[in-house]
Amino acid sequence: MTRALHHLDLWVDDVATAEGEWGWLLAWCGWQREEGKLSWLHDDGTYVFMEHSPDQHGDHDRLRPGINHVALVVETRDELDRMRAESTEHGWHEMYADRYPHAGGDAHVALYLESSEGFEVEVVVGE
Protein backbone atom coordinates (compact mmCIF):
# COMPACT_ATOMS: atom_id res chain seq x y z
CA MET A 1 0.00 0.00 0.00
CA THR A 2 1.35 3.42 -0.94
CA ARG A 3 0.92 5.93 1.82
CA ALA A 4 -0.58 9.30 0.99
CA LEU A 5 1.43 11.20 3.61
CA HIS A 6 5.08 10.59 4.49
CA HIS A 7 5.23 12.32 7.88
CA LEU A 8 4.15 15.26 10.01
CA ASP A 9 6.60 17.34 12.00
CA LEU A 10 5.00 18.99 15.04
CA TRP A 11 6.78 21.97 16.53
CA VAL A 12 5.65 22.33 20.10
CA ASP A 13 6.51 24.79 22.84
CA ASP A 14 6.42 22.41 25.83
CA VAL A 15 7.75 19.02 24.74
CA ALA A 16 6.97 17.21 28.01
CA THR A 17 3.32 18.32 28.02
CA ALA A 18 2.85 17.76 24.30
CA GLU A 19 4.47 14.33 24.49
CA GLY A 20 1.90 13.22 27.06
CA GLU A 21 -1.06 14.68 25.18
CA TRP A 22 -0.09 13.54 21.70
CA GLY A 23 1.36 10.23 22.87
CA TRP A 24 -1.97 9.27 24.45
CA LEU A 25 -3.98 10.36 21.41
CA LEU A 26 -1.76 8.73 18.80
CA ALA A 27 -1.55 5.46 20.75
CA TRP A 28 -5.35 5.41 20.96
CA CYS A 29 -5.50 5.74 17.16
CA GLY A 30 -3.07 2.83 16.65
CA TRP A 31 0.26 4.65 16.29
CA GLN A 32 3.33 3.08 17.94
CA ARG A 33 5.97 5.12 19.79
CA GLU A 34 9.40 4.64 18.24
CA GLU A 35 12.02 3.54 20.76
CA GLY A 36 14.22 6.39 21.97
CA LYS A 37 12.63 9.00 19.68
CA LEU A 38 9.94 11.62 19.91
CA SER A 39 8.07 10.01 17.04
CA TRP A 40 5.11 7.72 16.49
CA LEU A 41 4.76 5.31 13.57
CA HIS A 42 1.56 4.17 11.86
CA ASP A 43 1.21 0.71 10.27
CA ASP A 44 1.23 2.31 6.80
CA GLY A 45 4.70 3.80 7.44
CA THR A 46 3.58 7.38 8.09
CA TYR A 47 5.16 8.92 11.16
CA VAL A 48 4.69 11.95 13.39
CA PHE A 49 7.80 13.61 14.77
CA MET A 50 7.72 16.13 17.62
CA GLU A 51 10.29 18.73 18.61
CA HIS A 52 10.86 22.16 20.04
CA SER A 53 12.98 24.03 17.51
CA PRO A 54 15.18 27.05 18.21
CA ASP A 55 13.83 28.40 14.90
CA GLN A 56 10.31 28.72 16.34
CA HIS A 57 8.87 32.14 17.05
CA GLY A 58 5.44 33.17 18.28
CA ASP A 59 2.58 31.05 19.51
CA HIS A 60 0.73 28.41 17.51
CA ASP A 61 -2.49 29.77 16.04
CA ARG A 62 -4.49 27.31 13.96
CA LEU A 63 -6.63 30.19 12.66
CA ARG A 64 -3.70 31.83 10.86
CA PRO A 65 -2.55 30.63 7.41
CA GLY A 66 -1.15 27.12 7.59
CA ILE A 67 -2.63 23.80 8.62
CA ASN A 68 -5.81 24.19 10.63
CA HIS A 69 -6.06 20.66 12.03
CA VAL A 70 -5.12 17.02 11.59
CA ALA A 71 -7.76 14.30 11.28
CA LEU A 72 -7.09 10.81 12.65
CA VAL A 73 -9.19 7.65 12.51
CA VAL A 74 -10.56 5.16 15.04
CA GLU A 75 -12.50 2.08 13.99
CA THR A 76 -15.70 2.29 16.03
CA ARG A 77 -18.10 4.72 17.66
CA ASP A 78 -17.51 2.91 20.97
CA GLU A 79 -13.79 3.74 20.74
CA LEU A 80 -14.67 7.35 19.99
CA ASP A 81 -16.99 7.55 23.00
CA ARG A 82 -14.32 6.09 25.29
CA MET A 83 -11.70 8.48 23.90
CA ARG A 84 -14.07 11.37 24.56
CA ALA A 85 -14.58 10.25 28.16
CA GLU A 86 -10.82 10.05 28.82
CA SER A 87 -9.54 13.00 26.77
CA THR A 88 -9.58 15.68 29.47
CA GLU A 89 -7.49 13.46 31.77
CA HIS A 90 -4.79 13.62 29.09
CA GLY A 91 -4.74 17.37 28.50
CA TRP A 92 -7.23 17.63 25.64
CA HIS A 93 -10.22 19.99 25.58
CA GLU A 94 -13.34 18.94 23.68
CA MET A 95 -14.52 21.35 21.01
CA TYR A 96 -18.16 21.55 19.87
CA ALA A 97 -19.30 19.30 22.74
CA ASP A 98 -22.90 20.42 22.31
CA ARG A 99 -22.92 18.90 18.79
CA TYR A 100 -21.04 15.64 19.52
CA PRO A 101 -20.70 13.39 17.52
CA HIS A 102 -22.10 15.25 14.50
CA ALA A 103 -20.36 18.65 14.66
CA GLY A 104 -19.11 18.00 11.13
CA GLY A 105 -22.59 17.21 9.80
CA ASP A 106 -25.32 14.64 10.30
CA ALA A 107 -23.54 11.89 8.34
CA HIS A 108 -20.10 12.58 9.86
CA VAL A 109 -19.18 10.92 13.20
CA ALA A 110 -16.21 12.61 14.85
CA LEU A 111 -14.72 14.05 18.02
CA TYR A 112 -12.97 17.43 17.91
CA LEU A 113 -10.21 18.02 20.46
CA GLU A 114 -7.81 20.86 21.19
CA SER A 115 -4.44 20.41 22.90
CA SER A 116 -3.09 22.72 25.60
CA GLU A 117 -1.09 24.53 22.90
CA GLY A 118 -4.12 25.03 20.64
CA PHE A 119 -3.60 22.22 18.12
CA GLU A 120 -6.91 20.87 16.84
CA VAL A 121 -7.37 17.18 16.09
CA GLU A 122 -10.48 15.68 14.55
CA VAL A 123 -10.91 11.98 15.35
CA VAL A 124 -13.22 10.33 12.82
CA VAL A 125 -14.89 6.93 12.97
CA GLY A 126 -13.53 5.06 9.95
CA GLU A 127 -15.68 4.67 6.89
UniProtKB/TrEMBL annotation:
<feature type="domain" description="VOC">
    <location>
        <begin position="4"/>
        <end position="126"/>
    </location>
</feature>
<protein>
    <submittedName>
        <fullName>Glyoxalase</fullName>
    </submittedName>
</protein>
<dbReference type="InterPro" id="IPR029068">
    <property type="entry name" value="Glyas_Bleomycin-R_OHBP_Dase"/>
</dbReference>
<keyword id="KW-0223">Dioxygenase</keyword>
<keyword id="KW-0560">Oxidoreductase</keyword>
<dbReference type="InterPro" id="IPR037523">
    <property type="entry name" value="VOC_core"/>
</dbReference>
<dbReference type="Pfam" id="PF13669">
    <property type="entry name" value="Glyoxalase_4"/>
</dbReference>
<dbReference type="GO" id="GO:0051213">
    <property type="term" value="F:dioxygenase activity"/>
</dbReference>
